[in-house]
Design goal:
The protein is of the alpha/beta class and 208 residues long. It is built from 7 helices and 11 strands. Strands 1, 2, 3, 4, 5, 6, 7, 8, 9, 10 and 11 form an 11-stranded mixed sheet that branches. It starts with a strand and ends with a helix.
Amino acid sequence: MSQFFSMHPETPQVRLIQQATNIIRQGGVVVYPTDSAYALGCQLGDKKAADRIRRIRALRDDHNFTLMCRDLSELGTYARVDNAVYRLIRSATPGPYTFILEATREVPKRLVQPKRKTIGLRVPAHPIPRALLDLLDEPLMSVTLQMPGDEFPLTDPYDIRDHLEHEVDLVIDGGFCGLEATSVVDLTGPEPHILRRGLGDVSDFEAA
């Protein structure tokens, strides 16, 4: 049965952040709030935890995970970013955007999109994942918490606990997150390509 932590959405309790980080480091799968919707996350290199997330979400083996990064310098470790792309990303982070970029060798091969060699990366604005990332000292491997067949992500932490208490190790209650996912922008080509319009103003990428 999963643990359930109620965290303050603006000033998360240090003790609970430390406990949550320990659960992740020990191979746990966690549900946590973001500045868009709730997400499922696990440690970057943990194949068993990633496979559990794939099973919960009924994802194909080639589904792209998103690496939740704490800042742009960390993002640059896991993706190839030239100066023009860096300026675009800098203007939109932290925030509710997922960027598709060419992966570096730092990204585990099984997480890279097999044909295009890309990875999704994101720098969240929400204080809870930012606190987790600061303590973890590496990205979180994440996907939006949208169950198979559902039109929208799960948004109520108590409903999430009822649905997943035997599937995940921790549910972090950070309040209501909303139903809309991030905007997804592909920055691997000569011009930005908007793959999904969600939260976040994408006009800068259209005009770029």
